[in-house]
Structures are given as structure tokens and as C-alpha cells.
Amino acid sequence: MEYGLVAVWWVAVVGLALFGLPVAAWLCSTLPGRGAGFSLGIALTIVTLVAFWVGHLVLGWVALGAGLAALAVAAVLAVRGGVTIDRRAAAEALVVFSVVYLGVLVVRSVEPGITPGGEKFLDFGLLASLYRAPQLPPEDFWFAGESLIYYYGGHFLASLLTRLTGTHPWFGFNLSMAVFFGTLAAGAYELAGSIAANRSSDDSTGSRFASHESAGPDSAITADSTVDSRSIANRVTTGLRGRHERVIAGVTAVFFTICASNPSTAIRLLVRRLPGAIRGEAATAFAAAHSQLVTEWVLEPIPQEYNYKVASRIIPLTYDPFPLFGIVRGDIRPYLLSTPFLLVVAGLCYAYYRTPATAVRRRRAVVFGAVPIVGGFMAIVNTWSFPTVLGLLWLSLTFADAELRSLLPTSAATTVDRFVDSAASATMRGALARTIGAAGITVGAGFVGVLAALPFLLGPVGSRPSTPIVVLEAAARSSLGSLLLVHGAFLAVLVAASFAWLRGRVATSVVTAGLLGYLVLVALAPTTLAAFALFGPLLVVGWYVLATDRNVGFEGVLVVAGLGLVLFAELVYVQEGGGSRFNTVVKTYMPTWVLWASATGVLLPRLVRGRGEWSWSRRRQQVGAVLAAVLVVSTAVYGGVALKSHFDDPDTGGSTLDGLAAAEENIPDQVAAIRWLDNRSGRPTIVAAPGIAVYAWSASPASSLTGFPTIAGVSHEIQYRSREAYVDRVRAVNTIYLGSDAWRAELLSRYDVEYVYVGPSERDRYGDIRPFDGLLGVTVAFRADDVTIYAVNHSRLSESDRNVSG
Fold this sequence. Notes:
This is Chlor_Arch_YYY domain-containing protein. Keywords: Membrane, Transmembrane, Transmembrane helix. InterPro entries: DUF2298. By secondary structure, the protein is mostly helical. The protein has 33 helices and 6 strands. A hairpin with a 2-residue loop joins β5 and β6 (about 785-790).
């Protein structure tokens, strides 16, 4: 293990978080922890977004320095604004980040390799090419001469951290992964902990705004100058209880965010231990709900080398990963990299939700400044996340106490007042008007977010073919069994929480009848309507709760947002990546996971212990405790089994974070050549055999493991360039290896090739390759093991180029 690099990265990242603390404290002054857990996410957003804009002129230390300077300026301005930092909350966030950061590195240290599987070649190629790029947008390392058409913001951030710490990208790949997961954990802890602390205080005082200090000079919150000893004692007791609730909720949220999985693995183990009379039928039913298993496999013992991927492929023809799966596999996919910043957005929305109506400047700063800026950054990290950000903001505006008109200029507010706020929010017309008004303000905030990401949206990504939204065929919708396997753990919490809220407001008999009716509806619903029967009633209840009970916490907004994402993927899909709903499911499922995990951090402890209107009898609290125990155990089983297999069968002989370790194991005869190429300065264009097989070691390793552009890389490019464009490039590469010297010279000049790579993949594909030694201007630059690399001298090559005819 490279302990020095681990320490350097920790110091660098914690330093960034310290500068982010005052900015977070100013934006989240209405939250108990002052947004301490969001400080790193906010700091990374500022640094990367500024570097992104500057990077269109020049990258390297200039862009990074501009980002760091912007963060320092923001921190100074926040401090001058008179912020108060919660040091204990900051310490808690640091502990959470550090534990997860180190834990992820321990997991990755036994399997650190950058392999073709799971699109790691794509992810590392993005990181390495951005690290080497002279400016943005970067050249596509699998399609030389053309700009990258992909959302690369998260990989750009990883490249900045790699440069800041003086690390080679092969190591930066795994270290940046740990930073992202640590930031995600700190955000989940902060969000759930803040909601729980405020809920505890609200239960004690009956006021949504009772648990925090003044929100600033424009806040209407003041303290009574004459308080007796009893009120002081009550405040102290409330504060201590709030701290306690914060820790419990935060730890619970971190567990479900980072350590938990769907319960499919636990159910599979349980089925094998059922009595023989029902074991076969249960195994058949389980296999029918799990697209990756058949009855025989369910009944067999889980092997020592457990296939951890099975738990992420439950719904047929989709992908249902969760953060722990990404940790075990070693993912820095865009849908994962965006999740820490989604929780930052959720925290900012919650800060708005808690800010009193009179703090107009602060609310405007959050709605039209902080949220859309972070959302714009997320559009660069994972464009799919931008609509989720807007949806979360829309829900927050809809259900917050403050009047919408106060966010607008006076002239516009007068018009809005007549339509929106003049109607009582308790009426149907008032609720509809407020919902529409919130949508209008969200559109305005979305425009700011688009401006923040404008160079990206107007750049090469804007040239991609349109991806229409298509109605999902009824036969392709998820079955009840698969939905329960994927969402079952969170669903149990949501149903229990809905029951607990309703029982305090309507007769118990009515609630019981409603629950039974819901179960009957779910059981009898046809497969094509299973998702709507399962989640539709919960969405209605969640919306009704938020609309009618102003004391309900922000966890309700998180729940409703997740329900909306789940149902969206069952109604329509974005026709991208082969025309299936694969991408739509994975990129709505991951944000749903982190939103519901944070909400569960608040809801589950309250179900167990009882607070406010949720005060149950001791027996019911015992039922809640049993539910919590079952959920924790069932969702933790996967981690135990998968990690045991992971550590029992390491890919390396010892602990290391070197991403090239897998290449040394799988393609040892090419490692010396790849290291030699990597030591070349700049970003020279190379030519190598096209990587037709996306998930094989023949997938352009020379380009993928260095970030150097190649004429035609992996066939993944077909999704972005069209089949015709990719095939034309493949033909050009074929000609370079097999054609006449004249055509070779012309193509090497056309694509400005500096190195020709001849290794095992090239020999397998082309057989007897015509020698390059006789081509004027081409000489052997490197030869070792099974690879020869030729250097191209273009000044001499031009003499051959003149002989091309026709």
C-alpha cells in the first residue's frame, strides 16, 4: 500500500473541505450542523467549475490555480459575512469522510486494477486524457482529432485532484474513487443528521424554526433577551437530544448509503434454508423475480468466489447497482460520481426549506445561485442528473412555508400574488397554483444552471444525436417480484412510516383497512401495473402529507422525489445507448438510492424509538426494532459475502493502489510498452488495432491505459459518432497495417500519427503485417517482449505522401 499517497490525498482533500466550511456555513446557516458535511462537496464544486471555465483557455496548473483561488475568495467572503462554524459537526463530518475514504482504499488495494470490465478503460481513459489535455474540451482518446462527446465533469475533478497531489493517474484512479465515496458518506450523514436534529427540536417546541440560530442580518429570528433558567435548561436538553438524534440518523444514513445493498442476496440464502416442502416453490418464485438466476442456482450454496454482479442485475435488461457494488467493482462511473453533489443540492434545498420567509436575500441566493450552480456542475458530471436537481428544487419550493412571490422582483411578485399566494394553500386551487408557481421559478433557476454549464452544453456534446423520450411498452415494465427485490428494504420503511403518520390522524380501523387494501391492490395488480400499484399509493400519501402537515420534515421531500424517479423509469425511457431503457433505469435508480438512504436515516430510528406523533406503545416500538434489525441484517449480507470473496481472491500479491496492476497480470507482454508510451510528453496520436470487443483486454489498451488518442478505439464510439463514422476509421486503421506504403503514408499524415503500435492484438487481427521499416520516415522507437512501437517522422513521411495517386 502506498501509505504516503493515502496521507497526501487526505491532507489535500481535508484542506479543501476546511476552505469549504465557511461557504457551507453561510449557505446552510439554518441547519443544526451548518452544512459541515457538505463542505467538501461545495469546495470541489467551486474548484472544478472555475477550472472548467478557465480550462477552455488553458488547463494544467493555471486552471487548477484559478479554481483554488476562487475557493479561497469564497471562503474569505463567507467569513467576513459573519458565519458561525459548528466545530463538532465539522469533526463528525471529518470522521465519517475519513472512515469511508480509508475503507474504500482498503477494499481497492487488493483489486486496484484498471480492467476492461465495467467500462474502467473508458473511465481511466477520460481521467488520463483530461490530465494530459492542454485545454477543454479534451480530444477523444478513442477517436483521435475529434473532441470528446461525453459528460466528463467527475473525471475532470479526479484529474484536478491527481494534479494537485502530484500523483500519477494510475494511482489517482483509485484514490479519487475513495474521495468521491467519502464525500458521499459525509453528505448523507449531514443531510439525515440535520433533518433528525431539527425534527427532534420541532417535536419539542412545535416550531419548524426553533432549533437554529439567526440566519443572518436579514433574518427575522431573534432571541428573547429575558429567558429564565427553565427555558435555558429546556434549550440545553433539546440541544443535547438534537445532537443525539443527529448522530443516530447520520450513522443510519451512512450505513444504508455506503454499506447496504438490496436484500436479494439475503433472500437467496434464506430460501436455501427453508423446509423442504416449500423450498422448491420458493426457489422457483425467487428465480422468476431475479433475471440472473435459475432455480438450480438458487438452491446451490453460494461459492467462495461469489459473483457479486448478480445483485445488480435483477430487473431484466436493466442495471440496478448501488454504492457498495461500485466500491467492490471499483467504479467511477458518472452516475456514481454525481451522487455526492446530489446530496449537496438536497442539503441546499433543505436549507431553503428551513429558512424563514423574511430572509429573502438568503433564499434567493440558494434558489437562483447555489442550487443551479451545483446543478450546472452536475450536468457536466452526469447530464442525466440535471433534471433530478430541478425536480428536487421544485418539490422544495412547492412544500416550503415561505411565499413564492418573495423570491421575485416586486413587479413580478404582484402578478404572482394574484395567481399563486392569494389562494389559500389548503384549497385545491391554492395547492395547484403553488405547484405551478414553483415550477415557473424552477425553470428560472434551471436557466442559471444551463449558463453554468454552457461551454459543455454548447460544445461537442451538443452535436450528439437527439435522444427522444419513448413510452415504455407495458410488457417491458418491471414485475412485482423484481421490484420488491430491488426496492424492498426501503419500501418497508416507507410503508411503515406512512402507516405511523396516518394512525395519528385517522381512526386506527381506517388505517388498518387502508393498509390491507394496499396489500391486496399490490397482490392482485397485473404485472404491467405492478410498479404503479406498489409506488403510486405511496406517492399520493407522501404528497398529501407534505401538502397538509407543515411540520413534516424534509425527509418527505426526499421520499417523494425518489418515488417520482422510480415511476418515471416505469413509464418512459430516454432512447440512448442502443434504444433500451438500460441507461434510464441505472441513472434514475442511483439517485433514488441515495435520496431514500438519507430519508431512511431519519425515518427508521423514529419508527424504533417513537417521537412526537409517532409515540407508540412499547410493543409497537419492539416491532419497529425488529423491522430495523431485519433491514440492517438483510441489506448487510451482500457486503459480508461479496467482500469475503473479494479479499479471499485478490488480484494482486499484496496491497497496492497501482491501477496498472491488472495489466501486469493479464497482458504482461505489453506493460513495458505501455509504460514507455506513458512517459512520452504531450498527447501524441497513436494507431493500434480497433477495440471491437468492449470488455476485453484487446480494447485498445495502449490508448485506454495512457489517455493517448488513437484513430479508432473501442466500438463504444458508435453510440456517439454513428456506425458509418466508426467503420470509416476502422478501414483507415486496416489500411495502415495492411495497405501499400503510399496509402500508409497518406493516412499517417492525415491523422497526424506519431506512434504505430504493433502488439498481440494487432497480430491477431491482421496476421502478417507488412513491415514498417521500409516506409520513409518510420523507425523503430521501442521493442520489448511482444510489442514493437514505430515512431513517425512527418517531415520525411511527406516525401512518401507525395507519391499517393488517385
